[in-house]
Amino acid sequence: MASDETSTPWAQPKFLIAAVLVIALIVLGVVLALSSRNEPDGTSSTPTTPPGTTTSAPGNAGAESVCGLPGYADSGTLTTAPEAEWLFQGTTAYPTSSEYGPGATSPEGVRYCFQHTPAGALFAAANAMVQGGDPAVAGEWLDYVVADGPYREQIASSQEAADSADSRINIAGFRLLAYNGDSARVDLAVRATSGTSTILVSGVYELVWRDGDWKISADVAEPLNVASIPDLAGYVAWGA
Q1: CA–CA separation, 229 vs 208, rounded Å?
Q2: CB 210 within 8 Å of CB 183
Q3: Which helix (H) or strand (E) holds 18?
Q4: What is the pTM of this model?
Q5: Which is nearest to 212 in space by CA: 44, 57, 51?
Q6: Quick one: which of 158, 147, 151, 159 has its CA closest to 221?
Q7: 183-207 confidence digits (pLDDT tens)
Q8: Is residue 208 within 8 Å of 233, Cβ to Cβ?
Q9: Which of 33, 36, 39, 140 could be 160's S-S partner, Cβ–Cβ 3.0 to 4.6 Å?
Q10: Distances (CA, A) of 220 to 9, 77, 148, 206
Q11: How far apart are CA 204 and CA 176, in angstroms?
């Protein structure tokens, strides 16, 4: 019996790691069922904005947030963890703050409007990770959060998400890799668990400031790059 179990490829460590990584990808919002939201002619539906908000022309709409959340920085970094109240969406904790956001929630349950600062970009990425993995809001959320750009249709035509009911993830830390007020690159460290297997995953979000909020960039083909990491060295500890 031991020999049979050992020879089964699904019992090998590389397959266990791959399985957990796929779950992490799903919950990080990479693989979302957005193809059904395309129009019959194959074009993507136009991005919508949660009710009660205003929009402007594509591009940097200025420092003011869409819900009037105060605060602005055109440069900066984060070397300490910002204070947050951690709430739960399903089994996954997400950060909230009256200062950094989210500052508003749509009737569909989409959280949006983050401060135009490095901390606001971090909170936007952390909320993106959680909302992108919830089928109940993922479609409405992605309609709002993906910015206009040459790769918008490609990003909005992802594969269907697999069932991740038996998985658990927790934000474990972050690194702010870049920030200039117009864009931000946020690296979230996530601990993903499925059954008895656990893996640390890095998810790097490419964000841009558009129409008064942090949104996922469609100027690049892969606005979220995911890879397994051995430990949390170099990350600022942060989580529920």
Answers
A1: 25
A2: no
A3: helix 13-27
A4: 0.76
A5: 57
A6: 151
A7: 999 999 999 887 777 889 898 999 9
A8: no
A9: 33
A10: 36, 23, 11, 8
A11: 9
CB neighbours (10 Å) of residue 81? 15
Exposure pattern of 17-46 as b/e (b: 16+ CB <10 Å)?
A: eebbbbbbbbbbbbbbebeebeeeeeebee
CB 203 within 8 Å of CB 190: yes
Residue 184 contacts by C-beta under 8 Å, 6 or more apart in sequence? 118, 121, 125, 176, 178, 205, 207, 208, 214
Burial degree of 57 (CB within 10 A; 0-12, 13-18, 19+): exposed
Six-digit token string for 216: 């996922």
207 DSSP β-pair partners: 184, 216
For residues 135 and 27, the answer to whether their CB atoms sit within 8 Å is no
CB of 9 closer than 8 Å to CB of 203:
no
Identity at 102, one-letter amino acid code: P
- Which pair of structure tokens corresponds to residue 153? 């249709």
- Res. 59 pLDDT band, cuts 50 70 90: very low
